[in-house]
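Reviewer comment 2.1 asked that we show a complete input and output for one of the modelled complexes. We chose the adenosine-5'-diphosphate case, as it is the one discussed in the main text.
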Amino acid sequence: MLKSLRLQLAAWYLAFFSVLFLAFCLVLYGGLSRALERRLDEGLAMTVNISAKLMQEELDEMDGDAPQAAEEVISKMGPSSGEIAILEGTRLVAATDPGDKADLESAAAEVVGGSSERAAWILPHWGKSGARAGTKHLSFRGRTFVVLAVEPLDSIVRGLQVLRQTFLLAMPLLLAIAGIGGYLLTRRGLAPLGSMVEQTRTITGQNLETRLEIGKAAEELTTLAASFNELLSRLDQSFASMRRFVQDASHELRTPLAVIRGEADVALSHERSTAEYKESLAVIQEESRRLSRLVDDLLNLARADAGHVQLHVEQLYVNDLLSDCCRSVQPLASARNIELECRPGEDVAVRGDEELLRRMVMNLLDNAIRYTPPGGRVSAMIEAHGSDVRIRVADTGVGIAPDATGRIFERFYRADKARNRQQGGFGLGLAIVKWIAESHHGAVDLTSQPGQGSTFTVRLPAIN
Ligand code: ADP
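Response of the prediction step:
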C-alpha cells in the first residue's frame, strides 16, 4: 500500500491514463483495420464491375469467343488492378496469373454456389495473410461468367503490424512520461500542504495568534487553511478567556484570603479580650463564607464549561418558585428598607432543574436589592407569553450604563468595581444566570436606565 498521498494520486493518474491509452489504441487499431478492409473491398468491387462491363462488350464484339474476350479484358485492366480471373461457370477462362488456376476455380465454385453478388473470402494460400476477393456474375447468351478480382491482405496486415509495434514502443514511453508528469504535478499541487504542516508544527499554546499562510494554492487547500485559521481563532479566544478566568479567579481569591490572614495575624499578635477574639472570628467567618461562595460559583461555571452539569429536569410551577424566592429575600429587602413586590400570578408550568432555576431567580433578586438604594422598590413577576414564560425582576436602583450592558453577563465583570466589591459581589452572578437560562433553552435580557433602575427578563419555554 502506498502511504504517500502524492504517490497514490500519481498511481491513480497513471492507471487511469494507461486504461485510456489502451482503449484509444484498441479503438484506433480496430477502426483503421476496418477502414483498410473496406477500402480494399471497394477497390475490388470497382475492379470487378469494370471488368464485367468490359467482358460484356468484348463478348458482344467477338461473338462469344470467351477466351479471347477474357484475355482482352485482362490486358485492358492492366497489372495495377491486382489479380483478375474470368471463369465460365467454375472453369477458368483467363487470369492475370493463370498459375493460380486451382485456387481461382475453387473460389469461383463457392461464388457460383453462393447467392451473394460480391463475396469476400480469405484464400489461405494467397499471400502470407490470406486474401480478399470481389466477384461479379454476368450472363451472355445463356452462358454464365464469373469475374473474380483477388487482392492479398499482406499490405494491410503489414501496415497494422507497424501500427501495433508503434503502440508497443510508445506505450512504455508514454506511461513513463505520464507517471513522472503525474507525480510532479501532484507534488506541485500538494506543496502548500507541506508548508501548512511545517507552519502548524511551530504553533503552540504560546503563539496561537499565528495564522497559516499558503499564498496561491488550489481552492480546496485555501479552504482547508481558512478553516484551520478559524479553528486557531476560536482556540485563541478560548485560551485567552481561560487565562483571563484564571487570572480573575486568583485575583478574587486573594482578597478574602488576605483579609482572613490579616485578621488572624492581628488577633494572634498579642493577648486580646474575648470580645475582640469574637469580632475577629466573625470577620474570618464572613470572609470564609464569601470564599466558599466564590469557590462554589467557580466550580459550577467550570463544570458547566466542561458540560458536566447534569440537569435534574422535572415539571415545576415557576410562580411557586418565585414566591419562595421572594420570601427568602424579604428579610434582606426589609433590612435595606426596600419595598419588595412579588406578583407570581397564576400557575405556569415549565420543565427544568428546580435548584438551578431557584438559584437564577435568587441571583436576580439579590442583585436587584443590592443595587437599589434604601427607599427603592424591587418587583418580581411572571408573565406567560404564548410558548414562553417570562420571569421579570425590575428595580428602581442605580441602573447600568449603556456601555456596560453588553458585558454585564461576562464572568467577573462588574459595572462599578470598587463599589460592587464592597457590596460583596464577585461578578459571577449574572454569568451563572445566563448559563442557567441557556441550559434550559431560554435566554436572559436586560433593559436599564442609569440612575433609574434595571429590568432583567428571563425567557423559558413553557409547557402548553
Ligand atoms: P456581582 O456579584 O458583582 O453582583 P453579577 O454578575 O451578579 O456580579 O453582576 C455583575 C455586575 O452587574 C454587578 O457588579 C453590577 O455592577 C451589575 N448589576 C447586576 N445587577 C444589577 C442591578 N440590578 N442593578 C444595577 N447593576 C447591576
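The CA atoms of residues 258 and 287 lie 10 Å apart. We note this here for comparison with the apo prediction described in Section 3.2.
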